Amino acid sequence: MRISSGRGTVRVSEIDLYDPKVFSDGDPHAAWRTLRAEAPVRWQDLPDGRGFWSVTRYDDVRRVLGEYTEFTSERGAILKMLGVRDPAGGRQMAVSDPPRHTHVRRPLHQMLTMSALRSRVPRIHAAIRALLEPMVEGETFDLGAAMTALPMIVSGVVMGLPEQDHPELVRAGLMTVAPDDPEFQVDGSPEATLQQAHHDLFAYFGRQVRGRRGEPAGDLGDRDLIGRLMTMRVEGAPLSDGEIVSNCYSMLLGANVNTGHVVSAAILHLLDDPEQYDRWAKDETLLKTGIREALRWASPVVHFLRYAVADVEVRGQRIRAGDGVVAWIPSANRDEEVFADPFRFDVGREPNKEIAFGFGPHRCIGATAAQITLELTLREIFSRVASFEQAGEVDHLCSNFTAGIKHFPVTVRARR
Ligand code: HEM
């Protein structure tokens, strides 16, 4: 997704937040800024007769994401599938409401806390070093491509997936979240692309589950997230194979397409502000506040969809039971009423109430894993690179769901 100063002028009637091309080639921040000011709760009709609400202000985005009794996740959570009842509803964590959601989430979350992840850090760190090894003075390095591969390092470790499978899993993940992007498309068709990726990932995780069944049970539930899904009991019963595989699929997608964008988007912005890059790189006390600001700035997860459970009013607008409501996270993270000078990137920003990881019961279960990855990656970059220069065109992912930079060629001046 292109990140702009949001100053472009757009008429509310012309704003289309469904079209993925608006996010790769247009100016979504200008659209959101206009909506926040003029139509913070806005209905958009689609040519095929469907339609959806958009909420763009911070408080409304938090309410829609967090208040599951008003806005359910069980009918689907992605705009691309608007109006199609998600077959995984109530069976997959991301598209379930409490209390079942809580029963599935708790045992998985135990494996993603700081203390549970600590023993995995050396492996993750070594893989990050290897990923950044080719970023040396005199060579052109595609930071966008490297950062696209970054999250798989972590999901591979926490899900126990063999390294040789990583490139295919990254690709299948991108096909799922950006089926309109020509670089990942099958037969020039978003539908065929989605179907292929869905089929490949379900088949892959089916094999992973069968493989683990063939091994001695031993510590299966503590080995990795797939083992945990296979051994957990929810309300006294184990998950079905369909539920296990569906949760693996959702976990991979949740994990795989976000973290690297935080780094690419921040470095891209700081090309024009080398002094701030230098400050961030040299002052240890700014590491964490800078990461929080980069999360706010990049907001890699662009939206989540909910459906109104009953008729409800938001900011004076009547939303009818069954209507789809889209919460736009990057817009919430630029809300002028919450963030001072929201279009300024400030590595020292405090307070910073960004909600890049969402809000409420579904708030990202991998937030700590992402935080660890970002710290390790940025420390590594800061220790190697004194300054960056752009060395070619930046290519943005074509998706209204995930912000991503596919290609971002850079040259670097090494830190001596
Ligand atoms: C910077 C990186 C990341 C960002 C910005 C991000 C963002 C989000 C957001 C906004 C949600 C809320 C979904 C909703 O409200 O319906 C979410 C949920 C989720 N994320 Fe992340 N995520 C990141 C990294 C990760 C990682 C590393 C993992 C796995 C290790 C992960 C796994 C998930 C899962 C499984 C859910 C669903 C949780 C639930 O339904 O309770 N994410 N993420």
Number of helices: 17
What small molecules does this complex bind? Answer: protoporphyrin IX containing FE
Describe the main β-sheet briefly: 5 strands, mixed
Helix-strand category:
alpha+beta
Molecular shape: globular
Q: Which fold name is given in CATH as the topology?
A: Cytochrome p450
Q: Strands of the biggest beta sheet: in what spatial order?
A: 1-2-10-7-3
| Number of strand elements | 14
What is the annotated CATH architecture?
Orthogonal Bundle
Estimate nothing, just give the exact number of structural domains. 1
- Measured distance between first and last alpha carbons: 34 Å
Provide the gyration radius in Å.
Answer: 21 Å
Strand content: 5-15%
Question: Could you list some keywords that capture this structure?
Answer:
3-stranded antiparallel beta sheet, Cytochrome p450, 416 residues, 17 helices, single chain, globular, 14 strands
Question: What do you see in this structure?
Answer:
- With 416 residues, this protein is of the alpha+beta class.
- The protein has a single domain, classed as Cytochrome P450 (Cytochrome p450), CATH 1.10.630.10.
- Helix content is 44%, strand content 12%.
- It has helices at residues 21-24, 28-38, 58-66, 100-109, 114-117, 121-132, 143-159, 166-177, 190-213, 220-223, 225-231, 241-256, 259-270, 274-282, 287-298, 329-332, 367-384; strands at residues 41-45, 51-55, 71-72, 141-142, 233-234, 237-238, 303-308, 312-314, 317-319, 324-328, 385-390, 395-396, 405-407, 409-414.
- The strands form five sheets. A five-stranded mixed β-sheet has the order 1-2-10-7-3, sandwiched between helices. Strands 4-14-11 form a three-stranded antiparallel β-sheet.
- Strand 12 and strand 13 form a beta hairpin.
- Helix 8 crosses helix 9.
- It is globular.
- The mean pLDDT is 96.
- The chain binds protoporphyrin IX containing FE.
- Protoporphyrin IX containing FE binds at residues 65, 73, 77, 93-94, 105, 151, 154-155, 158, 250-251, 254-255, 258-259, 262, 300-301, 304, 329, 356-358, 362, 364-366, 369-370.
